[in-house]
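Good morning,

Attaching, inline, the backbone tokens for the sequence recovery test we're adding to the shared suite. The designed sequence is right after.
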């Protein structure tokens, strides 16, 4: 079994790697490079799993024994680093949600409920103007 100091050091290292990975994830999302984004997901999941295990192990240790103040300080620093990771993850989530909303808005403008004065024409597979907009206006009449 490894010492608590080594466990915390390993958790710090994993946290640093997660921070770096979240930065790479953001750049991939910002650059619309979904292949890179998808490749990062298994690595991120493995890091999160390992960090959750480390946190659970430390919580168990805290409840069973007395802990040195230096170890508590190191663990608090780790927790602060994890809060930074949480914020980076939320930043990525917001970017994903904004991009999804933009795509949904564009799709809605193309095929959704359009105003009769809208100047957007949608074409079907045969190259003809789609009837979805016309059908809706007949249904409204």
């Amino acid at each position: 079994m490894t010492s608590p100091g080594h466990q915390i050091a390993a958790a710090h290292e994993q946290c640093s790697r997660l921070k770096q990975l979240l930065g790479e994830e953001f750049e991939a999302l910002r650059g619309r490079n979904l292949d890179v984004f998808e490749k990062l997901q298994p690595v991120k999941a493995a890091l999160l799993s390992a960090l959750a295990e480390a946190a659970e192990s430390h919580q168990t240790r805290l409840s069973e024994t007395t802990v040195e103040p230096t170890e508590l300080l190191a663990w608090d620093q780790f927790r602060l680093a994890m809060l930074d990771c949480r914020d980076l993850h939320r930043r990525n989530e917001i970017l994903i949600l904004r991009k999804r909303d933009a795509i949904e808005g564009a799709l809605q403008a193309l095929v959704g409920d359009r105003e009769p004065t809208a100047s957007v024409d949608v074409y079907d597979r045969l190259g003809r103007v789609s009837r979805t907009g016309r059908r809706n206006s007949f249904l409204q009449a």
